[in-house]
Amino acid sequence: MIGVTPSPLRAEPRELAARAELAPPAPRVPLPARSVGSPTDGSLEGGVPVKQSAELRLRWPAGPRWGLPELVSLLERAALAVDRQFPGSILLVGDLSRREGGSLSGHVSHESGRDADVGFYYSDERGRSVRTPRLLPVTAAGTVPAADGLRFDEARNWALIEAFLRDSNVSVQRIFIAERLERRLLDYARRQGIEPEIVERAAVTMQTPGSGSPHDNHLHVRIACPEEQEGVCISGPAPVARRDRTAKLEPRAR
Which fold has domain 33-249? Predict the structure, then answer.
């Protein structure tokens, strides 16, 4: 006798509907983060927020703190690098971008998830690190008029710049900072015997913005477009060539 395989029973429409209600929803796959457009005319897709840690504090915990994962991880690694070299250091991070990017009040850029404002490190008259809840302007002499006894901490601030430039995972395109403070940092690096290649790169990467804030109370770091986002992310003007900035590589009288 030839065996007959029974056909599978077909579920009734009501049963199918009940199964659909009991089934868990399909997992949501996050889209890759993208910097769309330029820092001055763009948007952000799939950005991630900066989170506070022992080495990093947010000036505005509920503010514009979103960026490309590459930018956020750079800030975290740099804060940790400075703390390892100078234990107890805390990096104060200000504005990044809004969650979807776009125009941000008080800023010309910060639209595409590649920009972050970072507070300076300060120290007291004994050289001890001092944490401040706000961004304080610094004079050419390195003093802080708004707080007696406070100074621009050249050692920690250079360590931060160096951590940005030596990061092997992210390319830093620009660091906006007041020229008088840029000079102090470059002079400090030379006195410390830092490799000329790093000092030259710092001189090219650090720039004084042509408009907006003078950046004498914070620095502004901008990362380059990720390679895989070519055609979507617009880099913007490249940093000024070294031949146009050779004066910054020469010793200066104090």
Answer: Muramoyl-pentapeptide Carboxypeptidase; domain 2 (3.30.1380)
